[in-house]
Amino acid sequence: MNKVVALLLLFTLFIMPVNGTGKTNEIKPVKNVILLIPDGTSLATVSIARWLQWYNHPELSKLNIDPYLCGTVRTHSSNAPIGDSAPTTSCYMTGYPSRTGYVSTYPESDPVNDIYPNDPARAFQPLTTVLEAGKLLHNKAAGLVFTCEFPHATPADCSAHSYNRSKYEWIAPQMVHNGLSVVIGGGVSLLSEESETYLKTNGYAVYKNDLNGMRKDTSDKIWALYGNREMAYDIDRDPTQQPSLAEMTRIAIEKLSTDENGFFLMVEGSKIDWAAHGNDPVGMATDFLAFDRACGVALQFAQKDGETAVIIAPDHGNSGISLGVRHCGGYDKLTKDQLFHAFSQFKLTAEGFAEKLNSEPASEVQNIFREYAGFELNEQELEALYHCSSYKNSPIPENERSSEGIEPSLYSGSLNTFISKLITSKTCFGFTTGGHTGEEVFLAGYHPQGDIPLGMHTNIELNEYLCNLFGFNRDVLDELTGQNFAPHTEVFKDYTCEIIPSKEEKGSPTLVVKNKKKQLNIKPFTNIVTEGKKGEKEIRINTVIVYVDKNNTFYLPGDLAEYMK
User: Fold this and answer.
1) Where in the chain is the domain with CATH 3.40.720.10?
2) In the chain, how many H helices and how many E strands?
3) What's the CATH number of domain 487-564, 3.40.390, 3.30.457, 3.30.390, 3.30.1490?
4) pLDDT digits over 146-166, tens only?
5) pTM of the predicted model over 0.85
6) How far apart are the first and last CA of the chain?
């Protein structure tokens, strides 16, 4: 038995069946799959959001997701129990845990720490996602909805490949060229002129900060982007300028559901995670409630449609938030009014407050807090605000601001952080970190025939379930990876290959493949190959081509070699 086979066999021993019976193939396939991901949402975030909704709206004691909660998911990286969005959502999409920062890409081997064995020879290989498989195997439409910028980790995990989540110059063009029917979210400044031209030339309607345009659009292929990079938090959002996540989800479903072959849609509540990083409970709770309303849209469609499955799961936890904290004496005996009244008065996130304070003179501070928080700052709080280095309108000159004499629990150079601490000081919530956490996350699901995943699942098992919903298993993803992301050194082993560096600082190289009669010119991160010395003929492929500088390799479809014959 060779080493690779042995490793793969050992790998499979760790993977429990998705429904606990060993019969994952008994899950009834559906036409449409909607995956909703509230990024960085710990279970306590859900509880606080539910209490806040119930407190503000006594008739709404439950969330839209509540009747569909069915289990938990253990998410992790390939070599660490706590993961970031890139490898955790990658695993949902590809079936392989990966490294921190890796976007749907096979991880480097770390033999001492790898949770499951992996094959060192496959390091950096792009991995086919469920979204891509749905398009390739069943010609399904695909869509992405989110509130972060479009090349950010979670949307990128569905439709792009990179070992570095920050390489937007690699990720953004892949998403543009990967045949997505609907993209709605943030990132106007990240859509290059070249990408916008490609989209329009290929039949897409493109809207940038144009809410009315998106609402009136009647096409079935659309990119609608809002905000220079990310969109606003829901509670800070100007509803005349930016849509809610629920509206974005509804529009995406309306357009995708016209495809006779069905669709895959991923919806991300992106900035729950961002608020958690900033320890801002207002942003966490209100953006989760906005996400839950989007879940309501998806679930309502699925129940009416009868051919749609809905899966809801965070990619990881964040912040270690708790309802109840040591310094809040007797918190376990406090009434719901004592726990939630002050919290319910906040009408802006920490980021929203910071923008408001920096846009108004210091004389308006107390008016702003009365209107948007329901209280005035006391002397200590006002002094702490004035000493924030990023408070533009402070009456204290910047070179005279310091932490001396300021209440330690409130002092911060950052205005956003000060507001987050101030908000939290009015509650009995606590935080253990400003980073990700490793607890299991909730799982909710709807299936028209009731084939939902019950119990605790790994992120690998959740990928198996997603595959089963489209009528194939994880092995098919591997087969597609082998077909569409093969190293150029194997595909063109019988031909002369030259990698020509780009003349641009952040440009990508070009792979030129030659024989006596023909030449292929291959640029990465697109689906376009040209034939001839001057690129006279254009060839469109069904996937994107990926270049990895770490091993100087282009990953591309094996059948491209046929064009050299």
Assistant:
1) 3-321+434-484
2) 19, 22
3) 3.30.457
4) 999 999 999 999 999 999 999
5) yes
6) 36
